[in-house]
Design goal:
Elements (H helix, E strand, L loop, with lengths): L1 H19 L5 H8 L5 H22 L12 H18 L3 H10 L2 H29 L9 H5 L4 H18 L6
Helix pairs in contact: 1-5, 3-8, 4-6, 5-6
């Protein structure tokens, strides 16, 4: 039960950061998609930089268990296309539509309901898709760590530093 409470509290903290970072603002999202406002991109780069280093450090300390999911080529391509189109049309990604719904934004609520309906339909179609589309393009758990033959922390550290450097020193907040 304590794991659920910790997960809930982490989710609340994440949602708060998204809200305070403006990730549910239509103007911010549109500016990001038009590559004119870098604020959300900087927020994402910071989260990925800190998160990737943090998860490797937690794993090294035995406080996390890295579980790499198999790379399904068609799933990655279809999922990326659906994610990108959905974000462009609705103005929300999965995390921000939950935060926007919590704010009471009607468009976010409908986006969340659509995402849940899509997930439900996918769960119904999964048994049929697995043998025809998913398994033939299963490449297993592919990681840079396994491809390069080095410990992941040696990838995570420079990757995190590069993302944080880009976020804080290279990207401008606004492009005109």
């Amino acid at each position: 039960m304590s794991t659920l409470i910790i997960g809930f509290l982490i989710g609340c903290a994440f949602g708060t950061i998204l809200y305070l970072g403006g990730a549910t603002s239509y103007r911010r999202i549109l500016g990001t998609l038009l590559l004119k406002d870098m604020w959300i991109i900087k927020l994402m780069m910071t989260a990925i930089g800190v998160g990737s280093l943090g998860i490797y450090l937690l794993d090294m300390g035995g406080l996390a268990n890295m579980s790499i999911k198999p790379a399904y080529l068609w799933g990655i391509a279809a999922g990326g296309a659906i994610f990108g189109i959905g974000w462009a049309v609705a103005g929300y990604c999965p995390g921000t539509c939950v935060v926007g719904s919590a704010e009471g934004k009607k468009d976010a609520i409908f986006t969340l309901l659509g995402a849940l309906a899509g997930a439900f339909l996918f769960s119904l179609a999964f048994p049929y898709l697995e043998s025809t589309l998913i398994q033939p393009a299963n490449f297993g758990a592919v990681t840079l760590e396994s491809l390069l033959g080095i410990n992941g922390i040696y990838i995570a550290v420079p990757f995190s530093i590069a993302l944080l450097f880009l976020a804080f020193f290279v990207l401008k907040d606004r492009y005109d």
